[in-house]
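Retro notes - structure team

What went well: the batch runner handled both jobs without manual restarts.
What didn't: labels got mixed up in the shared folder, which is why I'm recording both outputs here explicitly, each with its sequence directly above its tokens.

Job 1
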Amino acid sequence: MENLESKVAKALLSIKAVFLRPNDPFTWASGIKSPIYCDNRLTLSYPEVRKIIENGLAQIIKENYPDCEVLMGTSTAGIPHAAIVSEILNLPMGYVRGENKSHGRNNKIEGVVPTGKKVVVVEDLISTGGSSIEVVKALRDVGADVLGIASIFTYGLPKGIEKLKEANCKNVSLSNFNVLAEVALEEGYINQEEYEIVKKFRG
């Protein structure tokens, strides 16, 4: 039986939510030149893929964070996924802004502030880990017990792994860079030469 990591990788590749361009690398906002680009917002536009993603997130949350009481999405890409998964798991949900709102109550956390609650952060993508850790810190600052992160995809970059470790924050992803590269080769999205270029990116 096909495992969840491969199933999700196939789904992401099929709709070009993850796009490989080994010979013409993308430039990330951080300046990193990468043969891979990930836009998991696209999953929302494809009901069959969306179903795989949301049921998968629900599954890994139940398996890895069985004591979870509240889901908190990251702004903005994690919000819709947190909302759908909270419906599946019948859990309260909120989200954390990138910065405090500039008007009204100046909220950074939207929804009921989960002070004293066991929280799982729902994230679409883990790269260097910086933005995810900021969300975790904001929740811990208000007294939430953050159990960890549930994400759709991780690049598995050493910098990201190290940052999560320093923040004492667990992450569980539906799929990852290594699995996706293997699936992309098997499914003919890239050839062997391109596969080798892709793998060198991770080292």
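Job 2
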Amino acid sequence: MLKEDMNAVIQMLKESVSSYHTVLAAERRLVEDGFQKLQMQEVWNLKNEGKYYIIHRDSSLFAFTVGRDLNREIPFRIAAAHTDFPGLYIKAAPQLNRHGYQQLNVEVYGGPILNTWLDRPLSAAGRVAVRSTNVMKPDIHIVDLKEPFCTIPNLAIHMNSKVNQGVELNRQIDLLPVAGLGSPSDQENGFVSWLADRMQVEPEDILDFDLYLYCTDEPAFVGMGREFLSASHLDNTAGVMSVLDGIRGEISDSGVNVAALFDNEEVGSHTAQGAGSALFSNLLRKICRSLPSPVSEDVLYDSMMLSVDAAHGVHPNHPEKADLVLQPVPGKGFCIKEACSQSYQTDSSVIAVIQQICDRENIPYQKYANRSDITGGSTLGGIASAFLPVAIVDIGVPLLAMHSIRELAGEADLKAISDFIYAFYRA
């Protein structure tokens, strides 16, 4: 990879324990590379060869670079990924004291494979709002509790004899984590007090929080040749990493390169920090107005965007779930995702651009389509296309066990997609 080796990829995965932490990890890398932070409500005076970024609502980040020579054509080259991943969210009234146990009250975020969350060491990370002197601006803390303080125990096979025949988990009953021992009298020593102690604030000053559970097991290389990376939230930290790797490279001769890291893709993107927000189109138009020589927003019609997310590798135990011909294998290159339904943004003229860049740079790629009788998930590209007059195409690394608490990717594909995005920004 161009700037990040695989150890750095693993470090990014370890840091990105929530969408808020993904943004912080991205920001650290951008600042190290000389990017300057901006605010949307300020006047911008952009410069040739300038490198800039903004953060929106703590969990979305947008970075862009201005080319050396803006007297030439000025298309936008955009690559977008998402900062969130499926999992379990701690409810506002988190404490449950039942049958001698202290438990957490949680709900499901996105579409995780639920049974993979059982019997794992779990911690929590996210955002906590704390009482302040200005009621309109509470103190916001980005928190990673780090230690594995809870787990969701399976029901023993002796009490659930059909478990190996497949048992549906009830989201309200079967997914409540155990976080300690206690009784109803231990309410004052519950989760909020425990959280306050670690944050060094008073429990009554914690007003609300957005906290997500995550697995504390570390990423690992597996396979007899260490060909695979096994880790949590490869969907879509791998995409975030490849986009960052590309935008942090050398400045292009012309044009504006943009990296967009949206939140809430796993729940539909229709939020203030998601791809369905008006924010991104506002951002691109503000860049047009703020360049050294302002340009018309019409340049967007000549621009191109990559929607970078995960793809499905063919499962060796279930090849019948794949298309009859298009069966991507991890390690053989990143995937160009196609669907005539436009659940993936499919445009042959744009796909041809990708193929030509890959052929020129000797970057391996594969094509992916769902089985005709299986509906695939949507991506942020399809959401953003309703707001942006740019050509969009979906790409991604082929995974096994997508949306499991541990996903599996080919190491070579992580390099391939990073190399491609780097080349795309400079084509």
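One thing worth noting from job 2: The first strand starts at residue 36 and ends at 37.
We'll revisit the folder naming next retro.
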